[in-house]
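Lab notebook, bench 4. Still working through the backlog of constructs that have no structural model yet. Next entry is a single chain of 109 residues. Request: give me the structure tokens for it.
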Amino acid sequence: MFLVAFCGNGDFAIAILAWMRGGDRPDPAHFDVDKTSTCAVVIDERGGVWQLSGALSYGCRMRERIFAQGAGHEFAWGALEAGATARQAVLIAAKRSDYAALGVDSVRF
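Model written out:
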């Protein structure tokens, strides 16, 4: 079991999700994505947080106590460091970033 959050090309995200569910590995070249940029953040069954690049390679496991990625992540990270909950941190990021305002969905394992 895993939780994954995507950013960027929606068709690429759907292809990656199909691959993660046992399908064929998508070719990033067919989706015109930047192979060096993060396209997803994955949380594994042990609670490990990983970044997945557009080249479909996992970077280092994030070992920090807190983690924020995407538009407004600087605001969210600061809020988390100051003691905000994840939900509060996203709301703060959405208020302060021009590119982060699609609402908050939260999940508990």
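Notes after review: Residues 36 and 78 are 25 Å apart (CA to CA). Residues 10-20 form the longest helix (11 residues). Flag for follow-up if needed.
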